[in-house]
Amino acid sequence: NAGVTQTPKFRILKIGQSMTLQCTQDMNHNYMYWYRQDPGMGLKLIYYSVGAGITDKGEVPNGYNVSRSTTEDFPLRLELAAPSQTSVYFCASTWTGDLDEQYFGPGTRLTVT
Amino acid sequence: AQKITQTQPGMFVQEKEAVTLDCTYDTSDQSYGLFWYKQPSSGEMIFLIYQGSYDEQNATEGRYSLNFQKARKSANLVISASQLGDSAMYFCAMRGTSGSRLTFGEGTQLTVNP
User: CA–CA separation, A48 vs A58, rounded Å?
Assistant: First the structure.
C-alpha cells in the first residue's frame, strides 16, 4: 500500500517563483489536508478538502491555493514564493471527518531563498 | 476554537524507565478526539494512540498509554520501558466535531539516554 505520497521530497525556490506540491492517496479517503511545519514548531493547517470539488481554508492559507478535481489528488500551489514559506509541508488524509486517525505523507522540505 | 498546550519543550529519560509527556487541551466541543503522533529525526509523522472524549477507559497501544483526565482537560502520554528508538519529537493533537481539522501542540522533544 502506497498510502499518502508526496512529491517532491525537497525543493529550493527563488523568491517570486511558483510551484505545485503534489499529494496523492490511494485509500479512497474523502478528507485531505495540507499542513506546514516550521522549524521546532507544531503543524498548522493551510487548506483542507472534504471531497472532490470542495476545499476550504485552514489557519494559514495566504500565499497558497489548492484544488481537488479527484478523490485521490490534492495539489498545493505556491504563487510568488516568499522566504516565509520556507517550511516542511505535510499532506494528510482520512476516511471521514469523524474522530479517526489522519494518515500523513512523508513531507516536502521547501526552501525559498 | 481549539487549543493544545504542551508545556515540556524537552524531556530526558533513562532507557527502560517510564516517562510521561504532558498535554492539556481546550475546546467547547462536547465530542472530540485526542491523538499523539511521534516525529523522529527522519521527519515522518507516526500515529501512536487515540482517545475519544466519551471513552471511559484510557487508551493503550503496546508500550503507549494515554492518561485521560477529562475534568482536568489533560491527555498525557505515558511511554513505559523507554527505548533508544523512542527519542523523537512527540505531538499531541485534537480533533473536534466543529471541524475535521487536527489542532497540534508545539511538541515535546524526548531524549532517551542509554
Answer: 7
